[in-house]
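If you are new to this repository, start here. Below is one unmodified record pulled from the training split, so you can see the exact layout before writing a loader.
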Amino acid sequence: MADVQTPPTTSHSRWSSLSSRLALLIAIVLILSGLVTAVYSAVSARSASAGASETSMANVHRSTGLLIDQAYADTQRARQTALESRRAELKDVASPIAATLDQLRLAVQAGELTLAQAQQRALETIKATRYRKDDYFFAYDSSGTAIAHPNPQFQGKNLIDMQDPNGVYVIRELLKRAQSPEGSGYLDYAWVKLDEKTPSPKVGYVFGYKPWDWMIGTGVYVDDIDKEAAARLETTKKALGDAFSKIDFTASGLLFVLDQDGTVVVQPAGRDLGELRSTDWGRALTSTLVSSSPSTAGTITPSTQQAAFTGALQPWRMDLSSFPDLGWTLVSAVPQSEIDAPGNSQALRQALLSLGVLTLGLVIGLLSSRRIVKPVEEITTAAVALGDSTFDPSTLDAAAARRDEVGTLARTFQRMGAEVVERERKLREQVTKLTVVIDRQKVAEEAGAITDSDYFKELKQRASELRERGTP
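And here is the target side for that same chain:
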């Protein structure tokens, strides 16, 4: 009978086992998901942090802009108040002149003076009247000819086409106000002071004297008001510099103001930004900043420029806004590295947290895979043992105790294995008995074959003959 053939046992490498493959799959899935999550979280954290830093920077810039607006408004308000006071003063000092002209006209009506005498006295009075220091009155006829002026170079000349340095037709505009329905008005223009050659800002007041068709006016120079406003502005600049030095929005952040020429007009107190005018990078930076400044007030324009405020040349995030009335550009500057630093730190923390979660997931996954795969390995070992006729059902007791599908498989295999072992035992016994019977029959057959052979028969005959011969 042919021998029962057992399947050859196949040797497996370490990484070809189910547990290794499952562990590797779990590790790959967790690592990929962890890397994606870490990268996404890091990028999101960095972006959110940078956005928050830029928003904070813009808020500081906007608040500083409001501070400058308020300071300039206060300066302008003080100047306007002084101008209004000066204009009211002009109207008050002009009232006696109008009253004098009315008295002279009444004298003409009463026959006390001729019209020519009254007008002559009026013109002399206008030329001789002074107030404050050197402020005076003047009179023009409706054609724009000076009929009463303290400056001889203007007396008797038609000045209708005369312009000030700013292109204002002074006499023409004054006549318009005197001939308007209101009969009076104010005009801002530039004029040369007596005994001087350089024009100075002046505000004029005129009223029309209709009975004689004259324009009588006066004006006061407001350069003192402008000087006071300029002094106020300088004080404002110093106050802004003090405020700038106290605004702390980053470690190296700073605020400064440039004029239209790129000159620093306001800088933080205690900080010298002369490098902006003395270095190549500084001159290039101020030129770029002024040209990039928004034309509309209240608009903030972000920009990234190279600067060396802290020593080394590096990228700086800069916000720009303009103040057209002042000709200023407000600049808030922060190193890009300081804007990115919180985001980088947060991104690092997020990456470390993701790494920790990944490690924990790997440990749990590997332990879980081991718990799942170990019973399968036990069943596999039992299957191999069954093929080698060394199967012991007790080796599957632990796996069979499970309450899941693996436990069901283990119990089923344990029962089937036991049945196979028992059947094999019985089969072996039957084979043994059958072998004994077969051996006895074979001996009988071989003996019969010997006795039935011609040689044996011949030998048997000879033996008989020998016995017969030996018998007496």
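Two things worth knowing about this chain: Confidence is low (pLDDT under 50) at residues 1-10. Residues 84-227 form a domain with the Beta-Lactamase fold (CATH 3.30.450.20).
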